[in-house]
Prior knowledge:
Blueprint: H1 2-23, E1 48-57, E2 69-73, E3 76-84, E4 92-115, E5 118-145, E6 149-168, E7 184-198, E8 203-210, E9 214-223
Antiparallel strand pairs: 1-3, 1-9, 2-4, 3-4, 4-5, 5-6, 6-7, 7-8, 8-9
Amino acid sequence: MKKIIFTFLIAGFGLTTSLKADGEPKITQPISKKGNSSGEKCFDENTHIINVGIGIPRWYYGLINSPGYTHFITPALSISYEQAYKKKLGPGYLGVGAYFGYQGAWQKYTFNDWYNGTYGTYYYQHQWNYFSVAARGVYHWDVLNSKNAEVYAGVIVGLRFQTYSYTTNDPDPYYNNFRLSQGAVYPSYSVFAGARWYFAKNFGLFAEAGYGISYLSGGLSIKF
């Protein structure tokens, strides 16, 4: 009889232990994901960005501030594309892409004069257009790269195409003596530093300072 009772006690204890183990919730460790606050970066190996900017223009030809002269310079407009190089380089990621910039300017000189016994108003007008086409490389340090903001630095290397036009209503046959320049192609380069802040998942604002078609520019970044 004692053996039978002992056997039932052992069986009951084993069943109780099994039910308790099956009934209690299991504690598991959370799975680390890229989206956590400690590791997510706004620029990583999967990032693609389009930047649309406007900036303070540079003037590539000397302005004349004298009576009779008027001039106008457009803002420096730019659009650039950047994507990450897949392999991490040092303590950050390298972004590579292309850059296109535009700036226009004109200068006009108006004067009154006699010609063949007729008094009239005449002008000389010069117009320039500058187009920059370049490759763009940007380095994004991890330590300066958080979930919603970053600070970066880079270079732009390419060509600047200058077009020039000259018009006048001066009847003087020597009016071409006032022509200033012709179209040309120049090297285009810039070293710059910038910052970007995302106000939404795929939309951010950026600002960059450097030596290029614009000394200071800013605008909208679209990430996809």
